[in-house]
Batch of 3 targets.
Target 1
Amino acid sequence: MPNFCAAPNCTRKSTQSDLECRLWVENCRRADLEEKTPDQLNKHYRLCAKHFEPAMICKTSPYRTVLRDTAIPTIFDLTSHLGNPHSRHRKRIKVLTDEEVQKIKERRLESSIEQLLSNKDCDAQDDSENADDIPQLTPEQKDLREFLRSSFEVMVLIGRQNFPFSCNAREDEMRSEEERFLTTGNFRALIENRINAGDEFLQRRFETAAVNEEYCSAVQQRQLLEVCERCVREEILQQVRECRFFSIVTGELVEFPEGEHLPVFLRFVDQANSLREEFIEFLSFEGEEVAVAERLETQLTKGWGLSMEHCRGQAHAGSGILGTKMKVIAAQLKEKYPMAVITPTSTCALNVHLANGMPLTGVQDVMSVLKKTNAFFKASPLLQSELDNAISILCQGNIEKESILKEGSRSTWTDLHNVFEMAVDLMEPLLLCMDSIHDNEDLKWNDQITSDAYAISEALADFEFIVTLVILKNALSFTRAFGKNLQGETIDVFFAANSLTAVLHSLHEVSDNLEVYHEFWFEEAASLATAMEIPVRVPRLFLRKQQAVETMEIQAESFFKEYLTLPVMEYITQEVKEIFSENHLKALKCLSLVPAVMGQMRFNTSEETHADIYRSDLPHPDTLPAELHCWRIKWKHRGKEVSLPCTIHQTLQHSDVKFFPNVNAFLKILATLPVLKLDGSHGETAQRRLQAYLTDTAVNQRCKNLAVLNINYHIKTDLEEMVQCYLKTYPEECESD
């Protein structure tokens, strides 16, 4: 049976139809077909879809094209054959008379009118059906919706612009009616601004309201804020649910009027294959570690509708007591969900992360003083200039060192991988600078600055501080390059994962020869203390305890070896082993799926040996070995002009990755691990916005709901959705209104 189009000058294959054969023949102007019967035409001839108007065609699926019942072909090429007379031999075109042409035009016009009327009838029927489905609203309900819409618009503006805002219902209840009426705030001010700007609805609403009626009670304002926050969060969570796999990231505790709260971020790859790390909520940190862990899990599952079975990583920031608690919380989550591997965050240097987590008072004092010192000089360019002068005085004749120290001190050096090396080099200039500021001979500094300088100088001039700093510098030197590679490019992370054995070997060697290493480290600390005219001695607090029990006097070197160097080395070794667990290392070694890493390894990689970790998460695990082989072959035999993607993000953006579903899924899961550097600025922006909010907002003016709106101001908001959510959540408020 022929399967080619019967129209002149067309060689495409066609679709079959049983409709009005004679009319079709007349329109396509095939004189040789006029004598054919309808059965012959239907059996032996076809017209393809290109000869029908788009309105005549129904696409029931991407693979099937169906004509409407009234479809008539009207699009034909009747002139291109003129340049090629041989084309007329097979499909002869009939030459029409003027009368026949006029009849065809009239028929086409009638067909168009019928089609238009048919479409109008369908549209009218659909509109009537939709109208029946939509419930009719009373004027009061319409007014309430308009008021809520305006209120939500104001709330979103307050949150995004971080305006101070009070929504304390208890304070509102304690005020008298007159006080509540006279109390003004940003919400009321913005409502009044909308009225003055010509918002006719708000004008009518408040002109007809009672004289002493509130714009919006504190309780209702809080409800509006909660709905705003919920809708913004739900917009993010919906994207997380769509991608399934995610990781949890938490930050330092944040102080609010109602207590300390833990900021929670979620890291995931969205539908556009972009890695994102979004802020979700502040979680209450009250209670013991077990209670906090249960609260976090409950919020993730029941509150946010996520499955912890899809959590593939967790990273928790924190120092001192918080760091210790977060370690317990992370361990509990990992015990229950083994695939939620514990990793450091990509925004914190590994050495800083390790030092923050050490449960040693001396180490935490060092970390606290270093942060205060860095913040002290960032407060004013004049203070930084004073430090530069101190560096110049102590580095006379060594221009290179002077330049390095000045440049380093102007950065946020407390976040660097070599923070402890930098701190040791800056010790003498820092103490000289602090003493100069505290003396304040030229009365340049105010009392607050001189007081802060004195407190920092007292901490710096303590031998316990110096020896702790020096030991941290030397002990963490074995993990410095390893940690730097973890925050480097993908190829660096891959090689870091394969170099962990060497790092652990070095740490074990130090532990086995601790006396020798400690002797050198203590001598370095003593030399630095001597240069700064600081006496070498055992901490005063320990001496007091020693006198109480009347034990033998202990030497400083022995004391710091037993109470500092030994526990520091034990902690570093154990923590590195725990952080870089077997599952974590397997995942990082699978970064060889990135084509640039493959190329570096000359395409001699063995992902199959490590891919079992996520096999159950893949769409087609049975075909994984064959797919990995094809993936290597594809990039190995690429064209010379084709460059190798260097990151997971670049690989996921490649057009061919969709043909490798297992590799695609594997890379998306890998990208969620918090240890990997973020491509772009999604996650870093969320954390920077959090820090900006905390810096700009006093503790007594902070509001969790507004903070979520402010940090996530890039998330689209649907006012109509907020109105619907409010009406559904607070039906009693709607009835009272």
Target 2
Amino acid sequence: MFDWIFPSVLMQNVSSTKKQGTQMRILDVQQLDHMYSLSHPFLTCQETIAHLQKTKVMFLMRGLPGSGKSTLVNILKRIYCKSFIVCSADNYFIDSNGVYNFNRDKIGVAHQVCQQQAEDACKKNIFAIIIDNTNIRMDECRPYLQKASNYGYIVIVVEPRTNWKRDPNVLMERNTHQVPLDVIQGRLRQFNPLTPFYFGLFLNHEQSTYVLQQAYDHYQQALQTFPQLKRDLERISREKNISVNGLLSRSNMSVQPKILHCTVKFIGKNTDQSRNEYTNYAANRLVSHLLGKICPGYIVGFTITPRTLGARLLFPNRNVWSIWGQDDNESPKKESSSHTNNNNYDNSSNNNKKQRPFHRNNKSKITTTDNFNTNDDENASMVRSVDDVLLVDKIIPTNESEQISFLHPTFGFLSRAHLTCGVAPDISAAQTGHDMTEMIKKESDYIHRNTPTPESNDERTVMKFFGEGHCIVYLKEPIPIDTVFTGCFH
């Protein structure tokens, strides 16, 4: 099931004295437990490792003393040896002779020194920053999470998977700093799941910068191509006392993360309901096994509305299908402003299903339906039917076989996957998802009614203007992106 764990690693070659050749011996339970405890994709998946080695990433270790953190840290140091640093409050208590002398009165100072060391590493753009503390409570993690956000680091929370990580007696025996049993028991009582605000697929800083530049370039191109689009957005810009060039910008967001992401599952603030959401979502074993893994995808187009500038995403990787937790059929919010109302579009419709059958153009370069077998139980558990699979690239209505519709935003599974590249003032980034579903419905209605649409076609793009400040840019050559699946913690 997991492409970074090959069956061969479950076996060992042993020589046989009775016959020539090689026999295969199954590893015993203890060896399997050890292998499982080290099966994080950022330790075992070569594709993930290669990507993270050139990505600014903060590994936030989390676990009780003796749970196996040091083993994981040592492996991380070997894998990401070209550019790494280990920040640990324990280092403050190690003297010049390498002797550990703990002083409870200095624990606050030790953590301040550790936090400053982490910030200095962020300023130096060190690729792998390893925070080697217990990080039991959120308030212990928050200073590092904030620094990661400020400096454009992807955060991967790393917890040991050892079978004794919650056993106080074993932890007391195994920890190297002689932490007493009562202290370990007290820390265990404080240990709760670290609930993220959302799970997402994160681009690194370099790719985020490139995608944002592409989005703004296509936005400017659309303004020049469609004079009415520019007039529509200039009218809104004047109302907001901002230039049309700055109308849809990341700088208008209340929170301005340095890196782009696609939300896979929104959890929300730490409430009973959000904790239940987290528990139910995390019950999918693929969620924990895919944390920290690379998930390649594509940007297939951009959407422009009076409120948001979004990048339309495609993920052919079935790992993403299995962890997708967003509602693709969520209705867009009704717009209260008169300049965004469209008489030709019923914004209150809750039906986001396709209105007619489609089939793929055989010349399509990208699709998620290649080799898809609806009789396969594993596939069926992730995607309910072929109609739920996201079809992209050139899609042709069956009754208009000669006409290519370029219906990139289309209904179905993962159809809402997007990046927020910019928003208008006072608009939430969450609006991009609503606008994406609105544009899908709007485009489908225009095609279904055979409504003439202003269009531009050049070597790189096909652009369509739908009126009232709405435009879609379709890319003839999708932009490949590499994302990392992990959580975002507020």
Target 3
Amino acid sequence: MAGFFTRILEQNMPKDPAMRSSQLLRLHRFAMALSTYVLVTAATILVTRLGLGAMNRVQWTAFIGLGLLGNSIFLTLFYTNANLRLPDPSLTRIQMIYSALWGMVPLYSLPEARPIVLMFYLPAFSFGMLRLTRRQYLGVVAGVMGLYASILVLGYIRGQAGFRIQYEIFLFAIFGILLFWYAFFGGFVSNFRRRLHEQNKKIQRANEKISREMEERRQAQIEKDELIVELRGAIGKVKTLSGLLPICSSCKKIRDDHGYWNQIETYLHAHSEAEFSHSICPDCQEKYYPEYFNSEKNESDT
């Protein structure tokens, strides 16, 4: 059933991953609560079929109608995401109070099977263990016990068939003890879960901080390694140019480490950052291009 509701409401889920995950969890819990309504209804029908009690048409109408009405409202709130605008988006306390109110119908209508009906309340109270604080739990218990007491008073005043005051007080006391135990134990579990959640958040923040620091160190190490490579390359070039360079005494070619003779500008360009722009000096101009040199000289003399 949880998967069924999830598929129906998938299109209206919040886009934020964290909110979406929380809303899915609430839908699963609502589906479980709805299953409990169905089981309690089936058990109530079985009780009447076995002759352990009887409910008239008005009581059946109230019982079925309240169950459908309440769950329709809760389903609408989850479907439209309107529950996210409420102080408690899980609607845990509201659902528990409503289920208790709904259960008052068979609790009053089936006095002979009242112990069985009281057992139906226990699954509903288990839903609050992971959500409600002890104070909230005690508030719900007080409300349920108040409703139960009003049922007993009404049955006593109306002289309900099969009503035995000592027996009803005994059931009331036992039921109250069970609910108060649920409240204290549920409050302990809820508080423990809350503290565990806070510790997990602290651990998560610490892990994120460590991850950021590790990434920063990794980036710094990468930059450091790149700088070392650049420095080694520069140092290698400086060593090559500062060493003893074999140069031809005639053509001025330089011999490299592999034994090849290179033009001096080619060698310097390959082993340094120097760039060359070719020109001609006056001596070479006079030697190789005397006609240009003499003409320029005559022009300058005149």
